[in-house]
Design a protein that fits this description.
heterodimer, A: about 110 residues, mainly beta, 6-stranded mixed beta sheet, 5-stranded antiparallel beta sheet, about 0% helix, about 55% strand, B: about 120 residues, 4-stranded antiparallel beta sheet, 11 strands
Chain lengths: ~110, ~120
């Protein structure tokens, strides 16, 4: 099956710094999704990407769908303490028997020091 | 996005027993999914639950261990049967968003299961 490699596994940054994380795949995806999970909660959707090359922003968050459809990155600018959490990328093939099935990356644990 | 609730939010169970987890959505959705998140790990899809048909299970998951019901377009249950400590995980349901071939998914808050 598809494998998603997400990096880095963890990040320790100072408040105000920018953050970048990425996911790469051995297979092509039609949709890339980025989620954030707080302790004891379910993942919350941050950004959805549907088209190769697409660059989408949501406040301080920016994500891009790689042109090869095998990778995506998420940037967080001017980090704040509430950005702390685990960030997951997820890819979806879409269509046929793969419709709706998400493959998740391993997650990036973000710690922000005030 | 849909509002999704799960019951129970957490439970501690004895080995060999079964637990049924409920997932309720505030609007009708076509597809519902069940995921497992083992401690410190990422999410793994267990099965896809469509109303009016049997659930479709992913490799490594079987119906006898994880029976699923989908009686209508707003509700689904996942049962974890004959539990062992290895079943200790967070179980999450998710639903698809608006119609479309490449869509988003929204997750419930999860059920944290500990098996002793």
């Amino acid at each position: 099956g598809q494998q998603l490699n997400q990096s880095p596994q963890s990040m320790f940054i100072q408040e105000g710094e920018d953050v970048s994380m990425n996911c790469t795949s051995s297979s092509i995806f039609n949709t890339w999704l980025w989620y954030k999970q707080d302790p004891g909660e379910g993942p919350v959707l941050l950004i959805a990407l549907y088209k190769a090359g697409e660059l989408t922003s949501n406040g301080r968050l920016t994500a891009q769908f790689g042109i090869t459809r095998k990778d995506s990155f998420l940037n967080i600018s001017a980090s704040i303490p509430s950005d702390v959490g685990i960030y997951f990328c997820a890819g979806q093939l879409g269509g046929g028997t793969s419709y709706g099935k998400l493959t998740f990356g391993q997650g990036t644990i973000l710690t922000v020091h005030p | 996005s849909a509002v999704i609730s799960q019951k129970p939010s957490r439970d501690i169970c004895q080995r060999g027993t079964s637990l049924t987890i409920q997932c309720q959505v505030d609007s009708q959705v076509t597809m519902m999914f069940w995921y497992r998140q083992q401690p410190g790990q990422s999410l793994t899809l267990i099965a896809t639950a469509n109303q009016g048909s049997e659930a479709t299970y992913e490799s490594g998951f079987v119906i006898d261990k994880f029976p699923i019901s989908r009686p209508n377009l707003t509700f689904s249950t996942l049962t974890v049967s004959n539990m062992s400590p290895e079943d200790s995980s967070i179980y999450l349901c998710s639903v698809d968003g608006t119609s479309g071939p490449s869509d988003t998914q929204y997750f419930g808050p999860g059920t944290r299961l500990t098996v002793l």
